[in-house]
Design a protein that fits this description.
This is TITIN protein. The protein has about 475 residues and is mainly β. Helices cover about 0% and strands about 50% of the residues. The radius of gyration is 52 Å and the shape is elongated.
Length: about 475
């Protein structure tokens, strides 16, 4: 039986047999029961991932009307106030602020911040920034010098502006003095290594109030003429193009203002051939040999010195002759020299990058030797005769008071082995010394004991005699 809640539908089916000759038609009456529509759905709980709906159960009939569009999300609200607002710097016309993000974002992303200020004696707040600030710091400019201000910051999300966090104290616009500071990041390198011919660039950031003066210097040397320095109020760079061994060393960067100074040092190593060895000295000069000594190069070219190359040349010639190409010490004895011949000498250092600049003696050295000192020095009475044979080379004789420093030349040309001193002070004590000379120089001195002028010898004179070489 069909009532008003049902609807009668006539369905016609046509069946075709497998031989496609027999056609059978079937009539089917279908009854579909309809109900009244349910009540309009309404949501009672919404989360980020679910929504709970409620509606009135229908009797029987057609479906209800479609509900309004619902988005599944957490309940949202404006964010809380920023956690901390502090002043990082002031000047006569500006104040720099920094703050931290709010603990609670209101369920939505923070889209910016609003900064407000007011004069301390007025209390009327006004917005500083026309557009929201994305960063968590801001510098308020164009302020009145010496005035007192209050500041506060609010966070903003899609639900609106949140609560404000105010700077605890009033801020006066005055220049803040601070000692210079050098900003060193995690990538800072104390030692910089560069190959010869390449460039080096040293960068340093700094701060201070008033703005510090920045100075670059090089320890024990002047900066290269190729050094280019660029300095602003907050950083400085030193660039040296086409480096060579002379650019190696210790560089010092100094910033200074009225509140103090600060410095930092860099070490630059240039991989190059070594510099010249230290000054050359010599000893043990004989008729056929000389011993040379020198210091290691100040600039090693960033590599260990393997050995030294020692060369000589006759003063009358321009060509150099290698004496030793593998000298591993800083001393070398040159042999097979022509007696009386003046020679120049030079020494070069070698490392893995090649042979460096030589260090050369500026004056030639003659291959000869100076005379030895006299064998014996005696003081004799005036009545005694001279001891020893005749001495034919010049003998510089000097005397001095035994209780006073310094020597007094007595004679520059004595060809005998005896000399008479006069005009001495009775009772005074004297010391005498004698050296032999030849055309190549003065030999070592032979010194007497302390001699007192007394009556045994005539008051004002006595003889000095010596044994020849």
């Amino acid at each position: 039986m069909i009532n008003h809640l049902a609807k009668k539908i006539l369905v016609l089916w046509t069946m075709v047999s497998s031989n496609k000759k027999t056609v059978v038609k079937i009539h089917l009456n279908t009854i579909i029961f309809l109900s009244d529509p349910p009540g309009t759905p309404d949501y009672i709980d919404v989360t980020r991932e679910t929504v709970t709906l409620k509606w009135t159960a229908p009797l029987l009939g057609p479906p209800s009307d479609v509900s309004k569009l619902i988005k599944c999300r957490e309940p949202v609200s404006p964010p809380s106030a920023p956690n901390v607002v502090k002043v990082t710097d002031t000047s006569k016309t500006s104040v720099s602020l920094e703050w931290t993000k709010p603990v609670f974002d209101g369920g939505m992303e923070i889209i910016g911040y609003i900064i407000e200020m007011c004069k301390a004696d007025l209390g009327a707040w006004q917005k500083v920034n026309a557009e929201t600030v994305l960063a968590t710091k801001y510098t308020v400019v164009d302020l009145e010098a010496g005035e007192h201000y209050k500041f506060r910051v609010s966070a903003v999300n899609g639900a609106g502006k949140g609560e404000s966090c105010e700077v605890p104290a009033t801020i006066q616009t005055v220049d803040r003095l601070s000692a210079p500071e050098i900003d060193i990041d995690a990538n800072f390198k104390q030692t910089h290594i560069v190959r010869a011919g390449a460039s080096i660039r040293l960068f340093i950031a700094f701060s201070g109030r008033p703005v510090p003066t920045a100075v670059w210097s090089k320890a024990d040397a002047n900066l290269s003429l190729r050094a280019d320095i660029q300095t602003t109020d907050s950083f400085s760079t030193l660039t040296v193009e086409e480096c060579n061994r002379n650019d190696a060393g210790k560089y010092v960067f100094t910033v200074e203002n009225n509140s103090g100074s600060k410095s930092i040092a860099f070490t630059v190593k240039v991989l190059d051939t070594p510099g010249p060895p230290g000054p050359i000295t010599f000893k043990d000069v004989t008729r056929g040999s000389i011993t040379l000594m020198w210091d290691a190069p100040v600039l090693d070219g960033g590599s260990r010195i393997h050995h030294y190359i020692v060369e000589k040349r006759e003063a009358s010639r321009r060509s150099w002759q290698v004496v030793s190409s593998k000298c591993t010490r800083q001393i070398f004895k040159v042999t097979d020299l022509a007696e009386g011949m003046p020679y120049y000498y030079r020494v070069s250092a070698e490392n893995e990058y090649g042979v460096g600049e030589p260090c050369e003696l500026t004056e030639p050295v003659v291959a000869t030797e100076e005379p030895a000192p006299p064998k014996r020095l005696d003081i004799v009475d005036t009545t005694k005769s001279s001891a020893g044979s005749t001495f034919t080379i010049d003998i510089p004789i000097k005397q001095r008071d035994a209780h006073r420093p310094g020597w007094l030349p007595v004679s520059e040309s004595v060809t005998r082995t005896m000399f008479k001193f006069t005009r001495l002070v009775e009772g005074a004590e004297y010391v005498f010394r004698v050296a032999a000379t030849n055309r190549f120089g003065i030999g070592s001195y032979l010194q007497s004991e302390i001699i007192e002028c007394r009556s045994k010898i005539r008051k004002s004179e006595f003889f000095l005699t010596l044994i020849s070489l």
